[in-house]
Specification:
10% strand; two-stranded parallel ribbon; 105 residues
C-alpha cells in the first residue's frame, strides 16, 4: 500500500506544480508502484490484500490521459493495450534486445 500512496503523492505534487506554473522538471519516475497488487498465490490470509485489476487499469488510464507531465513507470507487469496507449519498452537483459533502462557504454 505504501508504494501506491507514494506514487499518488508524487503524481499529485507534480500535477499541482504543472497546473500552477510552479518549478518542476515535468516528469516523474515510478519504480514498481503496482507490483504489490499482484494476486497473492499460495499465500494464506492475504486474499483481502489484493487490489482489483480495475485499480491497476485506472492508474494506467490516469497516466495516459490525465497526467500533464511525463511519467516513466518501471514495472514487472505489462499493462493492457486497451488501457494504455503510451510507449512500452520491455527490458529483457539479453544482448540482442533492450538490456535495461541504463546500458553501460
Amino acid at each position: 500500500m505504501r508504494a501506491v500512496l507514494n506514487a499518488a503523492s508524487l503524481l499529485g505534487l507534480a500535477q499541482y506544480c504543472l497546473r500552477n506554473d510552479l518549478p518542476h522538471p515535468g516528469f516523474v519516475v515510478l519504480d514498481s508502484p503496482l507490483v504489490t497488487y499482484k494476486d497473492p498465490k499460495n499465500v494464506p490470509n492475504l486474499e483481502d490484500e489484493a487490489i482489483p485489476d480495475t485499480v491497476v487499469q485506472a492508474s494506467y488510464k490516469y497516466l495516459d490521459s490525465g497526467f500533464l507531465g511525463q511519467c516513466v513507470v518501471m514495472e514487472n507487469t505489462e499493462p493492457d493495450d486497451a488501457v494504455m496507449a503510451g510507449k512500452i519498452i520491455e527490458f529483457t537483459g539479453s544482448s540482442y534486445e533492450r538490456q535495461g533502462f541504463v546500458i553501460p557504454v
